[in-house]
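hi!! sorry for the late reply, been swamped w classes. u asked for the two structures so here they r. pasted raw, havent cleaned anything up. first the sequence of the first protein and right below it the tokens
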Amino acid sequence: QKGTLRAYYASVSFVDALVGKILTALEATGQRDDTIVIFTSDHGYHLGEHDFWAKVSLRDESAGVPLIISVPGKKPAVCHSLTELLDLYPTVASLCGLEVQERLQGKDISRMLDDPAHTVREMAFSVAPARKGFLLREEKWAYIQYGEDAAGGIELFDTKKDPGQFDNLAAKTRFAPVVARYQAQLAEKLKQVRNNDLERPATK
């Protein structure tokens, strides 16, 4: 495990150095004031929490990602709204003055750059295909379901009282209404994400 930690911290240091090189190059070539820079990742990384290592769960350590957006002319700020990586394309399109197509499932989050208190999403959705897991993450609750029929189990965490996500409340009777609400919301969410144009014939 020590080797894994050393490799992780070495990777973080390496990425930090490379980001510095990119920003320095933009400054040196006079492109910094014309360039949007986004720093993010496709997943988080467990470092032993819950006896997990790497990107193996839908807990916050694995499902959460960094998101830093630097836009010329915008002041630094910290935003707390939930977002999804799907939101990056419509956001960049909007910032570049391009038309944001209505068919996109992502949301334009560029308003957050002027109003850090702006809420983009009340709930974020994430998927772990290998584990057939689905996450619905709100400010207070994290709902994780394994299998569309929940055959692999359900987890429910109160992230305000239990930020480490150790106490699974899903089987406790008093939380049955919360579980039922999320099961219905997940079923509806899966219908929405499958309502896309990937299988539609191309138009001339």
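now the second protein. again sequence first, tokens right under
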Amino acid sequence: MDVLIVGSGNAESTELLQQTASLAQLLICVDGGARHFSKAGITPHVLLGDFDSIDANLLQTYEKDGVKLVKYPTGKDYTDMELALDYAAEHGATRVFIMGAIGSRIDHSLSNLQLLHKLLQKGIRGVILNENNRVYLIQDRIRISRMEGYKLSLLPATPIVEGVTTEGLAWPLFNYTMRMGTGIGISNEFTEETASVRISSGRLYVILSKD
């Protein structure tokens, strides 16, 4: 099952949110992410969090519309986004789209990027996306379709990533060992309509980005 989770970070593109929502069978709103759903004219299936950043009138509207409310105490151990990912996994998610995960707070942004590890451990495909980025985390391989104006970057998500091999890119790698602290994988360009990235050990962020 495809799930869309929308947090309270930046989600500039209403069109992208609408397109992504049309692919998902379960729509989860994480607290203040309600403003993004509201702007896009979409009612989520589930509202989850401690409800400290959602507009009170919108919360009341969701209650009237029959949105399932899953409330947690403010003094909880986990972020609302992590709880939303757990909820998605418990309800049969096989792929999760995450929007509103990147914002002005670098701590929350980095935490959300690291939550892709949690999905990977559960065997769930995950992608963090916004108007300018698509972020994937792999431990084996992935095929990425070319998008106009986007470049492909590779960043180690573990101290060492071995066997990095790419095809369909201007600067290919073959059985390369990547280590944290280097920018060698940044801003590659597509030479074919589809590029492939595979690794033999470790974990790797695969990122489509544009200016």
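hope this helps!! also noticed smth abt the second:
The first helix runs from residue 14 to 21.
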